[in-house]
Amino acid sequence: MQKKTVVQIKGVSKKIGSKTLIDNLTLDIPAGQVFGFLGPNGAGKTTTIRMMVGLMSITQGDILIQGSSIKDEFEQAISHVGAIVENPEMYKFLTGYQNLLHYARMSPGVTEQRIMEAVERVGMQHRIHDKVKTYSLGMRQRLGVAQAILHKPKLLILDEPTNGLDPQGIRELRDYLRELSREEGTTVFVSSHLLSEMELMCDTVAVIQQGRLIDIKELKSGDSENELHEIAFEVNDPQRAKAIIGEGRIEENRLIVNAKRESTPEINAKLVMSGISVFGIYTVKHSLEDQFLEITGGGHIG
Amino acid sequence: MGDFLKLVQNENMKIYRRLRTWIMFGLTALLTIMFGVLFSLEGGSTVLSAWDVISQLFFLYFLATIFSVIVASDIVAGEFTWGTIKLLLIRPWTRTKVLLSKLIAVLLFTIALTVVFMIAAMAISFLLFHKESSDIFAQGDSPLRYIMESLLYKYIDLVVITVFSFMISTVFRSGGIAIGLSMFILFTGNIFTMLFSPARYSWAKYVLFVNMDLGQYMGQGAIIPAAGMSLAFSSWILAAYVLLFLVISWIVFKKRDVAA
């Protein structure tokens, strides 16, 4: 064990009738990370999250949070968790503050001062005493984050948190999450089918399909030196450039070469020496989306 | 962990921070007072004593029953409808405790509503009716005792229907079904008792409807109860039904997967 784990999902299955929604899922979530949970619609992301927070029963296996079983020691296990499961639904006839007070009363040691701290953290201090029914979706989302961090949980679980948010809302949410993870050491577990979002938010991504864990990818790991990258050279004469280098493929006015990172200057030098004008050099990053589609084979629901 | 009373406080906040709750209190008090005034305008103040009026006003107590049913029908189903159940159940409290806090909040509401009703009824009666002797209550009987006893029986009737509504709310997660079925029980109880009188059918005495009105055993004028039925018998039957309703609510609430 080189890293501390916050959550251990141990051989968890969920069956409803004859249908297996989650099939023997085992996953450890390390502390202090933003951990993504990625999969197409219907893959079992929400089901897994609902089992993690005790909203759904576990057919087989167990989930430990900070070492406590969600099945047998629910109160102990859940006290480490703050969560938004799908849209943050609030009591619309109460004010934002009353909503937070409601949840604060349910966790030990949350003072009024702490409530205001959480309110400020999500930038809601000006509207917190208005009724929730007057809030926009973005403001409800912020209130949702506030209720989830009230009791300073070790683990923050967010299910499809960006659903229905406008780009600015998504960006704000992303910033909160990064901040929380960095400043308070909160482990964040976030599910989404929005691949590009996950790429921007997460340190590690687990990919799930049809109830099975398919792959775990580290996104923020430093580029390993020996790996081949696709490096694009934007040049004035790609045909001639290809002839000089002797390999690669042409896309519009770019020559794309498979090479190690450290050989980039050499190639550049060769091109320049041969009188080719190089306008730009960059690494073609395989987006998570490409990898994701590769892994899931286009993503069939069923 | 923590303080269970805070859960009850939360449930109370969700009941009393809603406008409709105050409309219910207002209507209960207003209609009771209005009928008191009507009785007095009808010339009742020369015929009726204050206690007579209170016992007449008791027919309005069904308002309290309806409003209690409405609150009970919503207290669990509402959380599912609003989607707030997801945030409510992921706190360090077992589902049993969450459900219990809701039941207690409903019972507190029924008590509050009954108190408001009684205060309104007594206030208007003693304000407008000053006749000393009563035609309804015999000399020497204590009208207060009689009123309080029948109020108790009416309150028990209310609690049974309210707990029934609470169960339906929990099992079907629909406030509409809970209100509908509870109203059905409230209004068909008498018809059922007429059709399947325990005097004719021996099994009928175990049916909920037949036992709900404990007031039927009061006073000398009470109908001779059917074989084997008594105040104690009906009380036990009602207790058994209430327990059954609560156990069903508890099991369903505890086991349910929150998926929607």
From TrEMBL, chain A:
The keyword Transmembrane does not apply. SMART domains: AAA. GO terms for molecular function: ATP binding; ATP hydrolysis activity. The keyword Transport applies. Residues 7-235 form the ABC transporter domain. It holds the Pfam family ABC_tran. Transmembrane segments: none annotated. InterPro entries: AAA+_ATPase (IPR003593), ABC_transporter-like_ATP-bd (IPR003439), ABC_transporter-like_CS (IPR017871), P-loop_NTPase (IPR027417). Keywords: ATP-binding, Nucleotide-binding, Transport. PANTHER family: ABC TRANSPORTER, ATP-BINDING PROTEIN. Belongs to the ABC transporter superfamily. This is ABC transporter ATP-binding protein. It comes from Paenibacillus anaericanus.
Automatic annotation (TrEMBL), chain B:
This is ABC transporter permease. PANTHER family: INTEGRAL MEMBRANE PROTEIN-RELATED (PTHR37305), MEMBRANE PROTEIN (PTHR37305:SF1). The lineage of its organism: Bacteria, Bacillati, Bacillota, Bacilli, Bacillales. The keyword Iron does not apply. The chain crosses the membrane at residues 21-39, 59-82, 103-129, 152-172, 184-203, 223-253. The keyword Transmembrane applies. Keywords: Membrane, Transmembrane, Transmembrane helix.
